[in-house]
From TrEMBL:
InterPro entries: Cyt_P450 (IPR001128), Cyt_P450_B (IPR002397), Cyt_P450_CS (IPR017972), Cyt_P450_sf (IPR036396). It comes from the Bacteria. It comes from Kutzneria chonburiensis. The keyword Iron applies. The lineage of its organism: Bacteria, Bacillati, Actinomycetota, Actinomycetes, Pseudonocardiales. Belongs to the cytochrome P450 family. This is Cytochrome P450. Keywords: Heme, Iron, Metal-binding, Monooxygenase, Oxidoreductase. It holds the Pfam family p450.
Length: 416
């Protein structure tokens, strides 16, 4: 058993683990039972503690003073960690809401928070519905068969984000490619190359693109979140170029790739659970609970890291100041102590205390937008959908951060 538990811990540092949900959840279930706070010392990675129980993840998320995002907010290979540390020293590293803590985090978060409140999202609804119609119309035009992940779900959320930022649709292709390279740096179909340190080159390209956007919005502000960020002040001072560009990057990339992964995974789940699809078509009032279940089921963000600011004990395990802890969201979202029949896809599941948006001060800024996008897509698709089935083998991206389907061949009947 000890060897199996060690292997289950080590798999969390393997991007390929996330291409096989059966293997992933078998290992996570074992860790929850046998070693829910588990020390992992994997080759090419700095050591970390894997935290796999819902209650422990919640305890850590709530206590943002004792468990900090900095200096290691995401799991990455040692070589990339070292390269990013060098970029921090050079002032060229990302400094997003994911990377900072305390008062600084609170003040920076407030800059964009108003744009993601439900009341503001409702004003975005007409644009979102226009884009959902365009996407479902595209499905109809494709003649009943498509790769939903590559042809539909990859594009729809990105167009929404471009609208929010006020970016031209002509820049769609570039932003799509850079987002895929940033989050897919471990996947051979997405990475610029498979050298972990090459991810920093993508950050350089994103900085170059958004530097031009920031200069434009400072010279001529418009009614979009890009102008709000570019002209924001904290304590009477404009944000640094590094903070402005980092803010643009987190809004543009995280708001796109995660929603894309959830939407594709939701369509796969409905295709594989036709009784749930029939239930949802018969009762559209279930769409809000279906959206949360899709987000729980897919869990696009596989983990975030927290760093212990002081010595402490977690589930009887001694954690030292400076230790890093990996919060495994796919594991928390299948915790048998919280979810009845956690491996059952249930569009009517309630309550649904999933962890896919995090919790506490670092709760996902774009949660309301993501849920609105998925709900709007279902509201447009379901009345027009007569049939849905898989038309080939789905494929998940190799990643241990933001993941999801990269291929989802489906066969369907959608009315024009």
């Amino acid at each position: 058993m000890t060897n199996a538990v060690e292997a289950a811990g080590l798999m969390l540092a393997e991007p390929g683990t996330y291409t096989d949900n059966d293997r992933l959840h078998e290992g996570l279930s074992l860790l929850r039972r046998e070693s829910p706070v588990h020390r992992v010392e994997a080759a090419d990675y700095r050591p970390f503690w894997a935290v796999t129980r819902h209650a422990d993840i919640m305890e850590i998320e709530r206590d943002h003073e004792r468990f900090r995002n900095a200096p290691r907010p995401v799991l990455s290979p040692r070589a990339l960690d070292e390269r990013l540390e060098q970029m921090v020293a050079e002032g060229r590293a990302l400094r997003t809401l994911v990377h900072i803590d305390g008062r600084e985090h609170r003040l920076l978060r407030a800059i964009g928070a108003d744009w993601f409140r439900p009341s503001v999202m409702r004003r975005m609804e007409s644009r979102v519905r226009e884009l959902t119609r365009r996407s479902v119309d595209q499905m109809a035009a494709l003649g009943g068969e498509c790769d939903f992940a590559a042809q539909i779900s990859m594009d729809f959320p990105l167009y929404v984000i471009l609208s929010l930022l006020g970016m031209p649709e002509d820049d769609f292709g570039l932003m799509r490619a850079l987002t895929q390279e940033l989050f897919g740096n471990s996947d051979p179909d997405k990475a610029r190359d498979l050298d972990p340190a090459s991810a920093t080159l993508v950050i350089d390209d994103l900085f170059a693109y958004f530097g031009k956007l920031a200069a434009s919005r400072r010279a001529t502000p418009t009614e979009d979140i890009a102008s709000t960020i570019a002209n924001a002040q904290v304590d009477g001072e404009y944000l640094s170029d590094q903070d402005v560009l980092s803010y643009f990057i987190i809004v543009a990339t995280a708001g796109h790739d995660t929603t894309s992964g959830a939407l594709a995974g939701g369509i796969q789940a409905l295709a594989e659970h036709p009784e749930q699809l029939r239930r949802l078509k018969a009762d559209p009032s279930l769409i809000p609970t279906a959206v949360d279940e899709i987000i729980r089921w897919t869990t696009p963000v596989t983990s975030f890291m927290r760093n212990a600011a002081e010595d402490c004990t977690l589930r009887g395990v001694q954690i030292r100041a400076g230790d890093a802890l990996l919060l495994s969201y796919p594991s928390g979202n299948r915790d048998e102590d919280v979810f009845a029949d956690p491996f059952t896809f249930d569009v009517g599941r309630t309550p649904n205390k999933h962890l896919s948006f995090g919790f506490g001060v670092h709760y996902c800024l774009g949660a309301a937008l993501a849920k609105m996008e998925i709900a709007a897509f279902l509201q447009e698709l379901l009345p027009r959908l007569d049939s849905l089935e898989l038309a080939g083998e789905p494929a998940l991206a190799a990643t241990n951060f933001v993941g999801g389907l990269k291929r989802l061949p489906i066969r369907y009947s959608v009315t024009s």
